[in-house]
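hey team, just a heads up i'm posting the complex here instead of the shared drive bc the drive is being weird again. everything in one block, sequence lines first with there labels, then the predicted structure for the whole assembly after. its three chains so it's a bit long, scroll down
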Amino acid sequence: MIGHMRILQVSLCIAVAMAGCQREERQLRLDPPVAAALDEIALMPNGISGAPPEVFFALGRPYETNAYNLSQGKRLYSWFGCKACHADGQGGAGPAFLDGWWNYGPEIVSIVASIRDGRPHGMPAFRDKMTTEQIWQLAGYVQTIGAYSVKTAAPGRNDDKHVRPAENRGPAALLFDEGPRPLHSDQGPRP
Amino acid sequence: MGFLTTVDHKIIARRYIITSFVFLALGGVLALLMRLQLAQPEARVLSPDRYNQIFTMHGANMMFLFAVPVMEAMGVYLVPLMVGTRNIAFPRLNAFSYWIFLAGGALLWIAFALDMAPDVGWFAYVPLSGPQYGAGKRADIWAQMITFTEIAALAVAVEIVVTVLKQRAPGMSLDRIPLFVWSMLVTSFVVIMAMPAIVFLSTSLILDRLVGTHFFNPAEGGDVLLWQHLFWFFGHPEVYIIFLPAVGMVSSIVETFARRPVFGYLAMVMALIATGMLAFGLWVHHMFATGLPRLSESFFTASSMAIAIPAGIQVFCWLATLWDGAPLFRTPLLFVIGFIVTFVIGGLTGVMAASVPFDTQVHDTYFVVAHFHYVLIGGAVFPLLGGIYYWFPKITGRMMSETLGKWAFWLIFVGFNLTFFPMHILGLAGMPRRIYTYQPDMPWYGLNMFVSISSLVLVAGFFVFFVDAIRSVRAGVSAAENPWDAPTLEWATASPPPSYNFAQIPVVNGLNPLWDQPACLMVASGLRTDRRELIVSTVAAANPQVPGGLTGKFDLAILGCSRDHRDADRVDLHAVGGRLGIRSSCSRIDRLVLAQGNARG
Amino acid sequence: MLALTAVLMLAGCTGWQSAIDVQGAAAISIKQLIFLFVAVCSVVWAMVMAVLIRALWRGREERGRPADLDPQTERRMTRAVIAATAVTVVIVTVFTTASFFTTRALSLASHDDLTIKVRGQQWWWSVEYLSPPERRLQTANEIHIPVGQNVRLQLEGADVIHSFWVPNLAGKQDLIPGRPNTLTIRAERPGVYRGQCAEFCGLQHAHMAFLVIAEEPAAFERWVNSQQQSATDPSDADVIAGQQVFLSRPCAACHAIRGTSATGTTGPDLTHVGGRKYIAAGLLETTRGSLAAWIADPQTLKPGNNMPMVPLSADELRSVSAYLASLK
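-- predicted structure starts here --
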């Protein structure tokens, strides 16, 4: 019994430690070969969904679960002008993220592909404007805005005007729109 | 379970002291790592991320986990003994405060081990620590650690205030309280008034970060500078929370080793109180570069400089005491001499930094780093180490080694000055604080290398101190009840004291009871011995007021006794008569109550 | 220790980022104040030490019991302590007054000849000349000022709090988001003065330096005119290739080069980057080699800064660094 408790405690500690490291680690410099490998995403033929490269899992899905990468993504969101079309997730000329509906599915690879290669109806390609690492960071952040269940490492509010609850409070969960409102009738999931 | 549930102030204080010194050693290791990184330009020993965590940890650890707790712990140990009572007031709260302090410390250090320690400085200025720029949980951990440790500090402060005001031995009127107790009383009031500001602050930061409030968001009507005002409204008194107990220790040590009472008792008490009050009027001198109106800055220059006056009075009184006394150069006094030498430098550079124009050049440079290490190490750690040498026999029943003590003192004193004095010059030569490295073309290389090497001497001194302390616990020479022939009540009981402190509560009729009544100490009798019963006394005159165990009937006697009053040969002095609960009969302690009646004691 | 102080003072306080080697109006009057304070305080410390040493090692007769005090000695010591306290009060008053008048002298500057907006960002300085209107221009990390003229700096924090500090010229002033500050500087002699961020601002607080270059008015005018020009069109083949790389790769998304299609505002304006003395906020002297090293691996040279590592071939790197170095 005591042995079991000991094992449980030790494994709990290790789990916490691992989680802590993954979540809080700050990888400031991405090795160029790793960056190149991250560029190799496998997409389904219709451009919706697919599989991230192996290295993404080997790194521990850093762009979905790491707080530093998510907050860097948030800075990129404003630096690269995403707000011009998507506002703070409410949408505008481009689709909203906060309503919980994803035209190309919620997987991070779809979002990476959308940013990197662009999409029909006005989404430009950022391939030549951002590095691979930046695209992944931004994709992770965009996924966070529209996440239905809040990510544990979601960023807090910005020092800006308050237009919606911050990402760590799950605005998409609050603002989830039951009815389908596809901007582009030829794309996206249907109920 | 007894280990967990004890409420004896001495056991809890011992734990507090040991834990704080462990944190001191850990914080010292962090300082060494920083010196290793800064010894050379563009060194790559630490990454900027790790360096930022380390300097934040060093500051937060030394302030919140070492300096404040260890000073309060010395108070928790000594105040009940010095005022002649059985335990601190609210003993369970006292135990609680230790455990919550430990939780705060563990939180910070476990986070550090997991590479998620706060990296925003011990002051955690917003917006850097705010939701937008403080990614991850790091600033939250800082804020939560603050909340834990400050609640612990508040709890202890309340206990000490009540103990000093209501549990003093009969006869210990306000003008007979030992100076260390006065300093702890003033400190505790400062804690009670300063800590709520930081608890509010850490809470509002967590709210901003996690719940999306806008205390510090300028776009929504919040204010970034609000943080600095509130932080320094706490942060400056914090310095005095650390410094005032040290001043009390200096007074205790000076009077014992100069072999005469401290000169100018009333002036000393007034200086303590003045320092405690002025402490709240000078927080803005940490903000002279923020662009506040010039006139108000000048007001804070005046008030910051004014605090040099009470500090000066205390130094002058100690010098007078040493002048007239017959100094015995034992280790505790050496540390006090080291304190005077270094603290005066720290105080004078403080006066310099209080001037607005001067401060705009030295603020946030190594000049300020040098200044506050002179004040905190010179002004607080030196007296603390002296205090450890002084009270070690009382706490453990064994003496520390004089030889090792002198080695420790000289290594620490020389190492400290060689390490920190050159930092004044580095600051004037333009080296800012909190930089993880500097470029090779800056003229700081030589002095930084010198400082890093000197810090090894300082560390060697602390190492000798720790070796001496650990060795002496087991193998030190056994200490008598009062090995230094000191005048205050903590020396009137066994070393180490029994759990009930005094077999009978002493009665005092002077400022230095063991010198005033050298052969015999008066004690009160009539207290129950089958349970923990103590005397609650009036605030000013310390007349017995109500029975402490709240047992209803309670009678007192004053008995003369031999010095070893545990085996006292009881002799009735004179009878006045009356129950303790009736105050009218005991207006003056000299004519105090005696009762035969149904004394159960 | 006083001798040590003097030696170290002399050794440590020359240099281009020093509060003692002063060349600006404000810094000169602060230096006088510093010397006054240090001199008085040294004397005070020496006197306290003299009394301490005398108190510890003076000859004395045996004392009686510890608690027995001699009333005459007590009276003498009371007088001494009161006198010492009175002296303290006098010194503190003198210091406060001196400090007050220095503050007044600093803040009573006359008219301003030039207004420059300085924005502190993680971890570089954006510099915009606002007025007079004929001198409007945009640059980064390097501020040129004419000697002997009052220059008004509008200080703004773009993200977190920074602090603007050129010790040779003036004391520091914070750049606080939501609370603009101003600081007036005036250089009395031409020279290159280094400044550095003095408020902890995150990962690269250590590498957030800038230069203030004080020039004779004629040289300053020449500099203004050259800065107001757009970047010259390249003629050399290597440089033309470099421009193509710059405009087609992520560089142009964050940096602006006037006269080209690069209009990014996230990073520093690079229109005349080759003419600045340092790149990356005081990190490296500007040479073609250092530009190439910086572009090749910014995260090793300045870990955590916001410039990403853009994968470039060796040829691309060579030509883009040639292009940037040519932007004088």
